[in-house]
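Researcher: Please predict.
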Amino acid sequence: MTSQLQRATQTRQALLAAAEALIAEHGYARLNEDRVCTRADLSRGALRHHYHNGRYDLLPALLTQLIERQSAELASATPRERAHHMLRGILDDPGKSSVVAIFELWMAVRGDARLAARLNPIFSTAFERLLGVQADQGLALDILALRLILSGACMHRFSQGYDRAALVSTVQWLLACLPPVGLTPQHPVGQTALYDTVN
């Protein structure tokens, strides 16, 4: 029999998964508690029971989970490999792109002081955890370029005239122009390795 603790964990995970999918598919601007609850097939009371302050408790938990997932996937990867991986992350199924959800939350804090107060302490270590270098370290130009392109690509996904096929083609073209990086099978993107290991 499922214990109360297991049910509570399952409910929290369902709410987090729903919020992640909605942000990745539609952007932060279209996120609200009713949509999260509908997607999770749970009541608003369930959301408020587990996340008393609604999105202001839910989103810090989500951001922490997303950053932990991404950093664990690439724990032994170089900063260059991490940057390539994150850019390829926007090519994932729109509802499963953790990278897009992270960047959407990062952009959201600029317009919501209350949300910023909750998420900025998490973001303060995100750069190092995601790219494997401290924020104040000089980045190689190609890594910085990938980071900037990633930010723009994530924003573009929710702009007027967004064309997914064009974005995918552009990202694939860009990655083909760059020297390949090697990722081991422990660092998959979706179901396949990012690149074959370079000799």
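Model: The longest strand covers residues 188-189.
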